[in-house]
Every structure is written in structure tokens, then in C-alpha cells.
Amino acid sequence: MKKVYYLKTCSTCIRILKELNLPSDFVLQDIKTEAITVKQLEEMEALSGSYESLFSKRSKLYKEMDLKNQSLDERDYKQYILEHYTFLSRPVLINGDDIFIGNSKKTVEAAKGAIHG
């Protein structure tokens, strides 16, 4: 599978997509207009190893809901991501068995290398 979960309204996601120059066989999913399904999230977790690795602790809602002062487990991370797209660390790029999560320079460079060899 070759897929990118992103936000069309996120300037960082758009900049990264341009930088990656994705081949046409990648499917893009705007998670604001097309919600992540349980199956999709479970596929991401299988590749990443945990729901926490997919969870954004920098989202506005994370701070507003004061989640950092709560003890969250994997079930909680999964539930929050499914409830609101803002909790997914983005973009998430899947290239076969490889998954790249977030927008750090290191992650983007690794994704670029995996895609373009």
C-alpha cells in the first residue's frame, strides 16, 4: 500500500507533499474530509508498533483537554485519534511495509529516501 494521511488545510503537510514529489501510485487521504477508519488506524498501528507513536501531543485539543496530566494507555490513544483527526500526528506516509509519521526533517528525509531510492 502507498498512502498518505494528511490535512489539506495544513501548510506543513502541503509543503512536505511538494517536497516528497510523490509518484502517482500514492493515494492521498485528507483526514478532515475523509475520516480515518478503525481498520486504517489498526493498519497504521501494526506498522508503527503503537498508537502512541501515531498520537500528536502537540495538538491544540491535547492541551485544551489537559491530557498530558492524565495517564493514557494504547486504548485511549486509539480512541482519541478516531474521535478527532487533530490527534493524528501528520502526515503519515505508508510505503509498503514502511511507515513515516510526523513532520520532522529526519522523518521527511527518510521518507524521501524510501520513495525515490
What report would you give on this structure?
The chain has 117 residues and is an alpha+beta fold. The chain has 5 helices and 4 strands, in the order βαβαααββα. A 4-stranded mixed β-sheet has the order 2-1-3-4, with helices on both faces. Strand 1, helix 1 and strand 2 form a beta-alpha-beta unit. The relative contact order is 0.21. The model has no long low-confidence stretch (mean pLDDT 97).
Poorly predicted runs of 5 or more residues: none
Order of helices and strands: EHEHHHEEH
What overall geometry do the principal axes of the alpha carbons give? globular
Number-wise, the strands total 4
- Hey, roughly how much beta strand do the residues contain? 5-15%
Helix content: 40-55%
Please state the average pLDDT score.
Answer: 97
End-to-end Cα distance, whole Å, is 17 Å
Sheet/helix structural class: alpha+beta
| Largest beta sheet: strand ordering | 2-1-3-4
The radius of gyration is 14 Å
Number of helices: 5
Question: For the report, how would you describe the main beta sheet?
Answer: 4 strands, mixed
